[in-house]
Amino acid sequence: MLKEERQQTILNEVELHNRILLTDIAETLDVSIDTVRRDVKELDSEQKLRKVHGGAISLGFTTNSARNANIYALDEKTKIAKKALTLLKDGSVIFIDGGTTCLELARLIPVNLELTCFTLSLPVAMELSAKPNVTVIFIGGQIAKEAQISIGANTIHNLSEIKVDYSFIGTGYVDSQYGLTEFDWDIVQLKKAVIKAAKKTVLLCISEKLNSQHRYKTCEINAINTMVTEVEPENVLLNSFRSHDVHLL
């Protein structure tokens, strides 16, 4: 495989999943980790992604801005956010996860909608702070600098003491048989706590992530009450999810 093809594959993966591991990409491309490390370093120097320890993250994932040209599939994520808004009503108590799609949801919440919103995402909290009728409660803990979210035991403990009407979450990978998965064990524990803290959980997920999986399981697909994608519920891409007890929006 040519270097240009390798690097395009790396960019595609990091844009889709926000963060990747060098070991995973090396296995996918069937090349050495040193080769992938050199590619990532070169892409970082060209400001196409950001190199981090053991992997890389997308530029759109690292920014504090809700509207920037580096957010991957922004049109699709905006469509997902607009669909998710239909679930909200005055007086709702909700949770909004970190990630670019959830940030788009926060941005689109109407200024006249009265909500109480818990979040562990610094960008989401800042976005919501400009909404005059939204009470924002930040769930504190150790800050993961790359993802700009609070993590760790204190965050999980704080989540155990709340119960929200809806939690709006993202995921790295989702499959109708394997459920929601991630490559980061700590993030899995965090998402488990978020799901447990909600009466209903809503997954916001672009269709490109469908039928993908990784090593650590967050939950079965049936633990999700509603899955929102940018495609219509009748789309063939969602066929494998229809036999499960999850509402498609």
Low-confidence stretches: none
Give the helix tally: 9
Query: And the CATH topology of the largest domain?
Result: Rossmann fold
Cα(first) to Cα(last) distance is 39 Å
Query: Strand arrangement, largest sheet?
Result: 6-5-4-9-12-14-15
Supply the helix-strand structural class: alpha/beta
Bin the helical content: 25-40%
Q: Report strand %.
A: 15-25%
**Succession of helices and strands:** HEHHEEHHEHEHEEEHEEEHEEEE
Question: How does this model look, in words?
Answer:
There is one protein chain. The chain is of the alpha/beta class and 249 residues long. The chain has two domains: 3-57, Arc Repressor Mutant, subunit A; 74-248, Rossmann fold (3-Layer(aba) Sandwich). The chain is 35% helix and 24% strand. The chain is built from nine helices and 15 strands. It has helices at 3-17, 22-29, 33-45, 59-62, 74-85, 100-108, 122-128, 153-159, 185-196, and strands spanning 19-21, 50-52, 55-57, 92-96, 115-119, 134-138, 142-144, 149-151, 164-169, 173-175, 179-182, 198-204, 216-219, 226-228, 247-248. The strands form four sheets. Strands 6-5-4-9-12-14-15 form a seven-stranded parallel beta sheet, with helices on both faces. A three-stranded antiparallel beta sheet has the order 1-3-2. α6 packs parallel to α7. It is globular, with a radius of gyration of 18 Å. The N and C termini lie far apart (39 Å).
